Amino acid sequence: MAIAKAERLMNLALCLLGTRRPLSKRELRESIEAYLEAGSDDSFSRMFERDKDDLRELGLVIETVENLDGEVGYLARRDSNRLPPITLDAEEAAALGLAAKVWQQARLAGAASGALQKLRAAGLPEDVDPYEAHGALEPRIPVHEAAFEPLMLACRDRRPVVFDYRKATAAHPGTRNVEPWALECWRGHWYLAGWDRDRGAERVFRLSRITGKVRSRGTPFTAPVPDVVTVRETVASWAGEVADRSALIRLRSGAGYPLRAKATAVRELGEGWDELEIPYGHGLDAWLVEFGPDVVVLEPAELRADVVDRLRAVAKD
Predict the structure, then answer these.
(1) Which of 15, 107, 181, 277 is most exposed, with the fewest beta carbons within 10 Å of its own?
(2) CA distances (Å), 263 to each of 101, 116, 131, 172, 277, in order?
């Protein structure tokens, strides 16, 4: 049925775009096979009106013209349905390609492909490939978490959500009631920023720690939503981007290159280990745990204790 309707809409659009004069409903019925197969005039009329409305909703400008005899005709002028050319510079095309790659890994792959096809039809030059990497290193933003799509839609529609969340220091997950603000990617991981209703404060949640399904709630938001810049600063702060101190760690040689890139000082210790001084902010303990036995925290003592607690919680699972 869907294929038959799509074919019917395409035939109607081609007829309206290809004519130089308005075509009456009678002429359109005689030109399109699906309309000829309509059981009655009333059935055809209802089908035609629905199709005409669908094409207009898709963006086709259809004019209704009455001739001297009082007969109503329809046409879609090409100049009224021609979009201006779309130009993208290298940076804009790269950003578009990166966004498309995010959706390609989620269930929105079809929508992403359709959007790019529309851009092509609207004048995006063929030699500009949004999927092509613009540089020696190709950025990647993986979307593997099942919670990504429902949370993205909840952020868009401003719908509160409920999900089970396991903190890195907890052996079992707990229920969170959240008003979602935005999703942000940081160091290859997705984070949700929002208002935690139970705690009455803003919180940031790492999607990989959400367990089970994300359930939506029909109640309205109770807290104001900050602007996007503030949300990004919140995620960066919680994920460890904002640092006001330094930490001293021991790192196995040949490992932990992201840590080495952040280091303000590096000293070789020998026997396969290096000593690094790195910025210390909220979330550093969670990041260090990801490197497992390749990292040993030397100081400060509270950071070392936090990392040990997280490792013990992981070992209990």
Answers:
(1) 107
(2) 31, 40, 33, 34, 6
Separation between Cα atoms, residue 289 and residue 311, nearest integer Å: 7
CB 193 within 8 A of CB 219: no
Tokens of 173: 């997950």
pTM of the model: 0.45
Q: Please report the sign of the dihedral spanned by the C-alpha atoms of residue 316, residue 236, residue 297, residue 256.
A: positive
Each residue of 200-225: pLDDT tens digit? 998 889 888 898 899 998 888 999 88
The residue assigned the tokens 């400008």 is 61
Q: How far apart are CA 103 and CA 95, in angstroms?
A: 13
Q: Provide the pLDDT confidence category of residue 197 given band limits of 50, 70 and 90.
A: very high
Q: Which residues pair with 186 in a beta bridge?
A: 189
